[in-house]
Amino acid sequence: MFDFVIIGGGIAGASAAARLAPLGQVLLLEAETQLAYHASGRSAAMFLESYGNATVRRLNEASAPYLATAHGGVLTQRPLMLLGAAGQEAGFHAQAAEMGLAQIPLAQAAGLWPLLNRAHATHAALRDDTSDVDTDLLLQNFLRDARSHGAVVETGARVCAIARTKGGWQLQIAGKEAPHMARVVVNAAGAWADGVAEMAGVAPLGIQPYRRSMARIALAPGTDTRAWPFVDGVGDNWYAKPDAGALLVSPGEEDPMPPHDAWADDTVLAEGLARYQPFSTLPVTRMIANWAGLRSFAPDRALVIGPDPACPDFLWLAGQGGYGFQTAAAASQLLGDLVAGRSPELAAATVAALSPARFG
Question: Which of 3, 90, 156, 197 has the least C-beta neighbours within 10 A?
Answer without folding.
Answer: 90
